[in-house]
Amino acid sequence: KCQNHKPKQSLGFTYASPFKKTEAKTEIRTETETEMGLNINPIKSTKIRQSLEQLVLLGIIVTTALMIWQGLIYVTGCESPVVVVLSGSMEPGFQRGDILFLHMSKHPIRAGEIIVFNVEGGDIPIVHRVIEVHELQDTRVADVLTKGDNNDVDDRILYAHGQDWLQQSHIMGRAVGFLPYVGWVTILMTEKPIIKYVLVSLLGLLIITSKD
Amino acid sequence: MHSFGYRANALLTFAVTILAFMCAIASLSDNLNSPSPSAEIQILNINWFQKQTHGNDEVSLTMNISADLQSLFTWNTKQLFIFVAAEYETPSNALNQVSVWDAIIPSKEHAKFWIHTSNKYRFVDQGNNLRGKEFNLTLHWHVMPKTGKMFADKLVMPGYRLPKEYR
Known about the structure:
heterodimer, A: 212 residues, alpha+beta, Umud Fragment, subunit A, 2 domains, six-stranded antiparallel beta sheet, 6 strands, 18% strand, B: 167 residues, Immunoglobulin-like, four-stranded antiparallel beta sheet, 16% helix, 51% strand
C-alpha cells in the first residue's frame, strides 16, 4: 500500500517534494539563501517587497480607472459622458437618481431630443427636452428652446438674464440611454461628502491589506 | 482567500456584472420590435393669428389629433413621449420646429387615442413670416425604456397652410 506523505513545512524549511507545485515564495527564498550561506533577514525584505507590490497595484487600479474615464470622454465627445438626474423636472420618464449616458454628435439639434446644457454662469448641468429649434439658412447656427417634461413653462426663466435661446456652445450632449437608480450613490456622496471619504479610505485599506 | 470580505466582494462584483448584462440584453431586445404606428391630425380652426407686441407672429389653433401607437410598446418600454411640432421654412431660417402639443403615454392601452385640443404651447415665429405659410405637422415619439437605449422616430404630415391675412 502506498502511503502519501505530506511533507513537513515550517517557515524556513521545506522537505523537498517534487510533486508539490505550490510553494510559498518566502520558503523557496529562505531555503536557497540559507543553502548559499547568506545571512539576509528574509522576513523584512519580503515585507518591503510586498508593500511595494501593493502600492504598484493601487497605482495600476487608479490609472486604469482614469484611462477608462478619459476614453469614454473621447468616444462620446462630452466632457461628462455620464450624468445623474438631480431634479424631478423630467418625471415620470427620468427620476432623481437615474443616470443618463450622453453622446455629442455633429448632427444638428432637433426638437424632441433630450439635451444636457449649462446656462451661462450656471454650474449645474440641466437635462431637459428641446421644444423649439430655429436654424439659420447657410450657417446652420440654431436657436434652441428647452422645457422639462414635468414643468408647465419653458426654460426661459432658467436661462441667463436677457437670454431667450440656447446655442450649441451651451449644450454638452444628448441623452441616448439611461439606467435607473444607479445614480443614488453619487447623490449620497455629493450631499453627504463624509460617505465619499469613508468609502475611498475603505477601498484603499482593502487593497493594501489584501494578501494577493 | 475565503474570508467574509473576499466572498462579499466577489458576490457583489458578480451581481453588478449580471445586472448590467441583463440591462443590456433588455435594451437589445427592443430592436426586435418592428412598429407600425399611424396618426392623423386635422386642424379644425385657426382661432386667431396676430402680430404680437414683441414683433413676432403668433397663431392659436384647435386640432383633432388621433393616433394608434400601440405597436411601439415593448416589455422594456416605460413610457412614450409624443409631441406635435409645426415645421416650416422661412427666408431667414432653413428650419423652424415649434412644438404645439405634447403628451406622455404611460402604457399600451393609452396609446390608441383621439384628442380635441387647442395648442398647448404658443406657436410663435421668429419674425413675421407666417402669413400664407405652408407647414408640416409632424408627430414625434420618443420611446423611453425601462433600461437602456432610447430611440425616437416621427411621422410627417405635410400640407397645412396658414391664412394669408391676420385675423
